[in-house]
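As described in the Methods, two query proteins were run sequentially through the folding procedure within a single session, without resetting any intermediate state between them. The first query and its resulting structure tokens are shown here.
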Amino acid sequence: MRSPVLPTVDDSPQLQCEASGWPKPRIFWMRNNKTISEINQNHEYEVTPIPTQGDSVSSVASELTIIGIQKEDSGIFSCVATNVVGEDKYPISVRVQGIMITICPLLF
């Protein structure tokens, strides 16, 4: 697993992945072993196809945007590529950081 993504509360981080294979795979995203389509009732996730770096005949790429991320959104997100031959997962750890609050005294 690569280094964790460390967004701050209320950011909208974008996770990307690309897969290639024959037949051309399809990509879907998961969070803590549940598909994004299962848990996206509040429309806090947006999945978008993006241009590939590889051969467009056998490659596909996707971007997951987590809109207005909150501490409870921390977890393991996985890009899953699948076709009739098999499946592969790419896990990405997301650890949401809080916002530091500074209190200053009022001077009268």
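Immediately afterward, the second query was submitted; its sequence and tokens are:
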Amino acid sequence: MLTDIIRKLTSRKLWLAIAGIAAGIAMALGASQSEIATVAGAVTALISVITYIITEGKIDAAAVKATIVAQGIVQAAGEEASVSEAG
């Protein structure tokens, strides 16, 4: 469940939709176009960076996990070979 929430919060589509809603509200409240463009650009850039960092972290974690599993398989195979040679 937490993974689903994190996945949804890292969705660029979600954040662009939120930025669009915020821009619409800002226009309704009388903000200038340059202020709206500046804020929307900053939000888009920030979310892109955060999404990149989270995605790279997940990729790195998966690579570490795969390495650990591979080392466990190699170690188990080595132990199995040692037992066979001793027997």
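Helices lie at 2-9, 12-28, 33-86. We note this only descriptively and draw no conclusion about the first query from it.
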